[in-house]
Amino acid sequence: MSIGKMKAALVVLLLVAPISILLVPESSAEDAGYQVVTYKTVKPSMDKIEVEYRVYDDMPNIPFTTINTIYDIYSGYEMGVTDNRDGTYTFTNPINSVTAVMDTNTGELSSERYDDFKIVLSEEDSHPRHIKIDSESTVKEPSKKTMSLEDYDIPYYADEGNVWLPIHTVADILMGRSEYYTYFGDSTVYCLDADSIATEDMPIPVVTLLMAFMDNWSKKERLADLTDYTYNELCFAIDNIFGKPEVSVLGKELQSSKLDDVLAKHDDTTRKIAQWLRSSDNSEYLAGMILLGMYLDDHGHTSFLPNLDMIRDEERAAEIKALLDSVDKPDIYDKSEVRDKLEEVRKEVWGDNKYIEEGDTAVFTFDQFDCDMDAWIEFYDKGGEIPDDAYGSVIKALNKAKANPEIKNFILDITTNGGGNEYTCFSILSLMTGDYSNLYMGWVDSGQKDVIKTITDTNLDGVFNEKDLKKQYDFNFGILCTKTSFSCGNLLPIYAQEHGIMILGERSGGGSCAIELAGTADSVLGTLSSVVILTDSKGNTVEVGATPDAVLVDTDDESADLSVLYDMDVLSEKMNDFYSPKSDGINVYTIVLIVLVILAAASLVVWKIRKN
């Protein structure tokens, strides 16, 4: 695998946050032998520091640490830890004073506002300069979240006024759905900030970590102390942190049952998965993880690496393939295959053009809600050019259309758009609506519901005011989407439709959960749909997608003529019909009926007069 491919693989992964948070009935540190070991620790800034960890005799390949140690490395603040002298320990987030309590008598971790307890850093630089959060509000308070950990047999040790946990457990307690990911590999602890590494110039430590992962994937035997721990940790993570979207094969069952029980009951293959995940044979384990990824696949947000192409050892790859071929596998919707067909058809119709004008209609195509943070800083601070990311490119396309007096319809083509930055999505929405844009969020575990209200600098004057709250472009807007329009590519048509903007094509492809990085203790990587879901303004999940106002195609039909999606005459006709002036509900048939009623009434009056 080339370095370029390795970078691409890790960029796919390093976009959100990790997997697992598990503990068991308390054991005394005095009864368990351990050594204090100093490991090089890579901070989010990529600075390297030396940090002390514990390595217990029965788990020599898993460093133990405390919640506050990892929090302090990320935030630069000191998390408060209180030994309540009754077997409970209170951890206090220093930024917002939200607490979590670890009860070592019962093995429970609980918090009144768990999502706010996890790492909370400044959002000042987390979104581009062209958008600002106007307000954040909680419309439904969360219920207390308690995670009973004693069933998962994850060791912890309470002593010296603190609780010592496996580092991957600590990582997931803190990281949740954020962009931070902690991992131990290659005798180094990596405290990574996804924003700093999801770039073309990936830092050397991250490449080194991925190389270490690949070495582990080629080994024959798994490390003994990782085998049970990894399975138990995975079970807890899926049970408590995975959002369980129903589009996945096991999603609905997992909403009411634990992973271990679901694997035992669902079918013969899932029973084999449970067996292989506990195996000391690395080929069986990796085959089990690949299969589990298929059963949890939700069309884009949940996935695991490695795949067979990433196994460098040919013998190991052949063994894994043979195992995968020996069982029945679920059918997985392959968006990439459909997306490739759409891109091919679009190129046949429009060539390589991203912007098309014909008659009264203009169309602009973009495949990702990308965001160039640095370029927007350059634009505002130094008078640079409008960036070529999604928001900047949409503005440039709108300006082209505005220069042509014949254009009255403007369509955003996101038929092959797989998602990206949500703030970019909101800014584009505000360009079309001339209004604030709201993100509606819900938590499937705690029931919490939040609204984030944003304002966009739609006129690019560097000031957020009432001038931005009007349409800068006088067009009839439309959005062209398909089943491969995913995540933000699904969110934009959902919210646009609420503002009366026309949706064309076919139902968009869902992707309702915020995602987080995932990583088992023995170097299987992935992403998970988290417990945080995106909703419409009424609180309904957006997983079902946006229903088009004009259905043009069914991409599941292999005989369908996909070119209709890019037929400018068809698009213009549908747009003009949708936005044509309506006569306040009184049509010609209504007028005729009214006339007939009047004539009938007049005839009755005349008849009565003549009769008298």
Radius of gyration: 28 Å
Give the structural class: alpha+beta
Cα distance, first to last residue? Answer: 102 Å
Mean pLDDT metric: 87
Poorly predicted runs: 1-29
Morphology call: globular
> Would you count the extended β strands for me?
25
Describe the structure.
- The relative contact order is 0.12.
- This protein has 612 residues and is of the alpha+beta class.
- Strand 11 and strand 12 form a beta hairpin.
- Helix 9 crosses helix 10 (268-277), helix 10 (268-277) crosses helix 11 (282-296) and helix 11 packs across helix 12.
- Helix content is 35%, strand content 22%.
Features:
612 residues, alpha+beta, 6-stranded antiparallel beta sheet, 6-stranded mixed beta sheet, 19 helices, 25 strands, disordered N terminus
Put the structure in a nutshell.
This protein has 612 residues and is an alpha+beta fold. It contains 19 helices and 25 strands.
Describe how the helices and strands are arranged.
Blueprint lengths: L2 H11 L13 E2 L5 E9 L5 E9 L7 E2 L1 H9 L4 E4 L4 E5 L6 E5 L4 E4 L2 H4 L13 E10 L4 E4 L8 E3 L2 E5 H9 L4 E6 L2 E6 H4 L6 H14 L6 H17 L10 H4 L4 H7 L2 H10 L4 H15 L6 E3 L8 H12 L9 H16 L4 E4 L2 E5 L7 H10 L7 H13 L6 E5 L8 H12 L3 E7 L5 E8 L19 E6 L6 H11 L3 E4 L7 E7 L5 E11 L14 E2 L16 H12 L8 H24 L1
Parallel strand pairs: 1-11, 2-14, 17-18, 18-21, 21-22, 22-25
Antiparallel strand pairs: 2-3, 4-12, 5-6, 6-7, 7-8, 8-10, 9-20, 11-12, 13-14, 15-24, 16-17, 19-20, 19-24, 23-24
Helix pairs in contact: 9-10, 10-11, 11-12, 15-16, 16-17
